[in-house]
Amino acid sequence: NLGTISGHTKVCLSVDYRQQRPYAIVTGGEDMTLIQHKGPPFKYNHTCNLHKNFVNCVRYNNDGSLLASAGTDGRILIYDGENVEFKSELLEEGMQRAHDGGVYAVSWSPCGTKLLSASADKTCKIWNTTDNKCETVFNMGSEINDQQLGCLWLKDNMIS
After folding, report:
1. Distances from the Cα of 15 to the Cαs of 18, 68, 128, in angstroms?
2. Within a domain: residue 22?
3. Which of 65, 72, 89, 139 has the largest count of CB atoms under 10 Å?
4. Whole-angstrom Cα distance, residue 100 to residue 107?
5. Whole-angstrom distance, CA of residue 89 vs CA of residue 129
């Protein structure tokens, strides 16, 4: 038995697995929560309620030291990867959130300190999580169909 993943009161939208000891599974959902289970066998460990809307994406960096969550509230939050303690929030200069629209996806760079985000505001951004600053903004258009729903950072390539 590998355990039970539980705790969300609404639909779970995202899941990721910490591949370093202590192993963990983290989920994000429509109930605005991020939930961590440790194991195996996996058992409930911790809940974070910092988002003000759906948690669309949760991702550990490659070495499991950091965890990012992205939400419909336009926020990207960074946590300690082991104990899921809040560390920082990525904020666009002059704004109180990372994006003007909901953030649908995030993907870590191979080095594990930079983050690519994709948003309903029709942009993708590269963030430096060491200083929590946006380094690059990619404007993908102005039409409704230009919303960015997913992203991937693989080696030297970024896809959205």
Report:
1. 10, 12, 23
2. yes
3. 72
4. 19
5. 9
Query: What are the φ and ψ backbone dihedral angles of 145, each rounded to 5 degrees?
Result: -75, -5
Print the domain residue range for 35.
12-159
> Residue 5 — pLDDT band, cuts 50, 70, 90?
confident
Residue 36 CA to residue 126 CA, distance in Å, equals 26
Contact status, residue 50 vs residue 86, Cβ threshold 8 Å: yes
pLDDT at 154 (0 to 100)? 97
Mean pLDDT of the chain: 97
The conformation of residue 23, written as its DSSP 8-state character, comes to: P
Edge to edge, the sheet with strand 103-108 lists: 103-108, 114-119, 123-128, 133-139
Q: Does the residue 6 lie in any domain?
A: no
Concatenated DSSP letters for 50-64? Answer: --SS-EEEEEE-TTS
Nearest to 159 by CA among 114, 107, 90, 122: 107
Residue 3 has pLDDT above 90, yes or no: no
Count the domains in the chain: 1
Query: Is there a domain that residue 7 lies in?
Result: no
Q: Report the CATH number at residue 60.
A: 2.130.10.10
Query: How do strand 133-139 and strand 86-90 relate by DSSP bridges?
Result: unpaired
